[in-house]
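Supplementary Methods. Inverse-folding protocol.

Structures were first reduced to a discrete structure-token string of length 128. This string, shown here, constituted the complete conditioning input.
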């Protein structure tokens, strides 16, 4: 069963058959919601460290400050032992540039993150 969980303007579901966690942000989100969802998903009973993750940010409204941006990056690095497989970000516009920058920085720390304009391209990379 792939139930959907909601946390603020984030939602997620864990697809156990495909081994993927799908996170979606809709509308206006803030920094605290972003950190909370990253920290909360591993407590889901269906969570597995080796699941791939798709984070669809294509419909979010959030423009992080520089400090929030670096804190998001630091939190991802802090969680690298928990999220052990690939993470694909689906983003639009200027957020794609920020996604690429976060990916570059956290990949240097041993994570596997990449940003994409479409969900199809993200899934292609996740499952190659």
């Amino acid at each position: 069963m792939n139930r959907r969980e909601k946390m603020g303007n984030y939602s997620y579901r864990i697809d156990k058959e495909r081994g993927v966690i799908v996170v979606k942000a809709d509308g206006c989100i803030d920094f605290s919601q972003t950190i909370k969802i990253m920290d909360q998903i591993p407590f889901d009973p269906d969570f597995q460290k080796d699941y791939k993750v798709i984070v669809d940010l294509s419909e979010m409204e959030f423009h992080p400050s520089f400090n929030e941006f670096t804190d998001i990056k630091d939190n991802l690095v802090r969680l690298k032992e928990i999220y052990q497989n690939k993470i694909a970000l689906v983003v639009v516009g200027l957020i794609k540039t920020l996604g690429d920058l976060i990916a570059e920085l956290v990949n240097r720390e041993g994570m596997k993150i990449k940003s994409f304009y479409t969900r199809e391209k993200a899934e292609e990379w996740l499952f190659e």
